[in-house]
């Protein structure tokens, strides 16, 4: 079964690519940052990539009315929740989570996915979004997944919420947890000895943390900024080897590969923008893992003939007809 899918806050397309690789029919991506759109368009010539501010719920619903997707996927931006920055739930980007929930509850696709950083779980915006989904009639599966257990060589925890209209809570729990690997994937396992180094530098947020990592462990989270080794790096007791000859920070391309983008993935744009697009992405293999779990569930429902889809029993509302 191929669900007609739309990707909101699409960035350069990590989530889109994972879902596409799992067989979903991604027809449209929405994003309002031009550098991300440039990367997306370079790699998905067959998808519409629309520039739209998703805080505008009316225009977003108009777009949904024209595409009529069965599945909406998206990761509302996470700066307000992430440990990277100062938390600001006041009126900043956390409200995009509410916008996303509002749009889903009004359009009511058969399925949706919302992806966010782990600490979003304790935020008011996240809790309010769950409440909106429940009131709209969604059964919810909520799982915190580490990409390193889902086929990506990177320690990156993401909160995954999947909703099924008129479904049961926990409907995808088994499918999402049963395929997790026991051991986290290391860089050496993923790249099969093709990396030209054994250790590398990843600039720490503070010198209280180590900065040198081995390829015999998953990489730490790939962030949106990639700094070279500063002259005054003091070293850290946890560094497996001292910074010296042969130790360097990762290249842009290496970071994209660790995010499990394929080697042929195009990265047009300035270095700083591309680094940001890469750091923002959902690892493709994590997205694919989640998408495959959903695909498996859909097949089971299809076999049991228990799946009401959009356009069948639960036609999504044409919310704008009377507007
Ligand atoms: C966490 S990133 C998404 C990454 C993407 N899911 C992927 O896997 O590559 C969030 C994206 O939302 C975009 N964004 C932020 N505010 C937006 C808005 N108001 N409307 C549309 N897109 C927005 C950002 O430019 C950013 O690319």
Q: Which features would summarize this protein structure in a list?
A:
323 residues, alpha/beta, Rossmann fold, seven-stranded mixed sheet, two-stranded antiparallel ribbon, globular, binds S-adenosylmethionine
Write the layout of secondary structure elements.
Elements (H helix, E strand, L loop, with lengths): L3 E5 L5 H8 L3 E7 L2 H10 L4 E4 L5 H11 L3 E4 L19 H14 L3 E7 L6 H12 L2 E9 L10 E9 L7 H5 L9 H5 L7 E3 L10 E3 L37 H7 L12 H10 L3 H21 L19
Helix pairs in contact: 1-10, 3-4, 4-5
Bound molecules: S-adenosylmethionine.
S-adenosylmethionine binds next to helix 1.
What does this structure look like?
- The chain has helices spanning 14-21, 34-43, 57-67, 94-107, 124-135, 173-177, 187-191, 252-258, 271-280, 284-304; strands at 4-8, 25-31, 48-51, 71-74, 111-117, 138-146, 157-165, 199-201, 212-214.
- It has 323 residues and is of the alpha/beta class.
- The chain has a domain at 4-184 and 280-304: 3-Layer(aba) Sandwich (Rossmann fold).
- The two termini are 33 Å apart.
- The structure holds S-adenosylmethionine (SAM).
**Poorly predicted runs:** 82-86
Q: What integer value in Å does the Rg equal?
A: 20 Å
Biggest sheet, spatial arrangement of strands: 3-2-1-4-5-7-6
Tell me the span between the first and last alpha carbons.
33 Å
Order of helices and strands: EHEHEHEHEHEEHHEEHHH
Classification by helices and strands: alpha/beta
CATH class of the domain at 4-184 and 280-304: Alpha Beta
The major pleated sheet works out as: 7 strands, mixed
Any idea what the shape is? globular
Mean pLDDT: 91
Ligand names? S-adenosylmethionine
Estimated helix fraction: 25-40%
Q: Bin the strand percentage.
A: 15-25%
* Number of helices in the DSSP assignment: 10
Could you name the CATH topology of the domain at 4-184 and 280-304?
Rossmann fold
